[in-house]
């Protein structure tokens, strides 16, 4: 199982947002760190097949990012995820499941299981409008997992989580990383230190560091040094 990113590039008019990124990702949790505007969202959207690269390719075990079969293996939580405030948590998941092509029985079974996994079972029948930021975020993570994805891409998933939820989230992500490729972006260094097996640092559209968090004594300092001149 390998996600192969080859010289992936995105240019917006005169701005190169992602600049010839090549990476091979296998099982595990990858933390993508970068300042605002470094190119993280652009990069992730290309990995999801939502944004067409200017050049370069993304393939998963030979399947191209634009193929249906690739989509079937993908779970994605965008940064600006649109929730339906009048839906309750359960109905929202059932709705997302139907969009992903799950059968009714399968959708019910899976939604129930995922609500348990993200500890939202007791509010499953409450309107999303009443959820806290962290609860919405957990619901977003649950919808990304409906199709048992092998590639899980989460754009700033820890935004809005309180300290308790952060710990719960870390445990969940760790578990997912044992069987899937999990790529999550953040600009909070401590999130990455505790969750990621591999740290990817992005700067001006390029991956400037790719290695284990353990390799660096003080990730926060390393990160700040890297970005100091910006
Ligand atoms: N549609 C667009 N048209 C033109 N420029 C864009 C567009 N989308 C992004 N950019 C530019 O590309 C660069 C990378 O943006 P991107 O959103 O990928 O960064 P990011 O690392 O995800 O930042 P953030 O954490 O703020 O989301 C930025 O300079 C941004 O202004």
Automatic annotation (TrEMBL):
| PANTHER family documented for this protein | ABC TRANSPORTER, ATP-BINDING PROTEIN
Domain ABC transporter: from-to ranges: 3-229
Its taxonomic path starts at:
Bacteria, Bacillati, Bacillota, Clostridia, Eubacteriales
* Classification via SMART domains: AAA
Tell me one GO molecular function of this protein.
ATP hydrolysis activity
Q: Which family does it belong to?
A: Belongs to the ABC transporter superfamily.
Pfam families named in the record? ABC_tran (PF00005)
Gene3D superfamilies, per database record: P-loop containing nucleotide triphosphate hydrolases
Which InterPro entries does this chain map to?
AAA+_ATPase, ABC_transporter-like_ATP-bd, ABC_transporter-like_CS, P-loop_NTPase
Q: What is this protein called?
A: ABC transporter ATP-binding protein
- Keywords, sorted A to Z: ATP-binding, Nucleotide-binding, Transport
């Amino acid at each position: 199982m390998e996600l192969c990113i080859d010289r992936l590039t995105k240019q917006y008019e005169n701005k190169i947002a992602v600049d010839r990124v090549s990476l091979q990702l296998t099982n595990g949790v990858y933390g993508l760190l970068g300042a605002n505007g470094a190119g993280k969202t652009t990069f992730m959207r290309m990995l999801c097949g939502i944004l067409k690269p200017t050049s370069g390719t993304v393939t998963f075990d030979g399947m191209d990012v634009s193929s249906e079969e690739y989509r079937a293996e993908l779970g994605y939580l965008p940064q600006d995820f649109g929730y339906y405030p009048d839906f309750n948590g359960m109905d929202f998941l059932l709705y997302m499941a139907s969009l992903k092509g799950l059968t009714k029985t399968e959708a019910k079974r899976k939604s129930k299981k995922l609500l348990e996994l993200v500890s939202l079972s007791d509010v499953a029948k409450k309107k999303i409008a009443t959820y806290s930021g962290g609860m919405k975020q957990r619901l977003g993570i649950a919808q990304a997992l409906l199709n048992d994805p092998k590639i899980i891409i989460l754009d700033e998933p820890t935004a809005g989580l309180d300290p308790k939820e952060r710990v719960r989230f870390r445990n969940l992500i760790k578990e997912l990383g044992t069987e899937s490729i999990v790529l999550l972006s953040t600009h909070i260094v401590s999130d990455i230190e505790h969750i990621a097996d591999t740290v990817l640092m992005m700067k001006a559209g390029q991956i400037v560091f790719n290695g284990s968090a353990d390799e660096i004594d003080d990730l926060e300092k390393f990160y700040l040094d890297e970005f100091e001149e910006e």
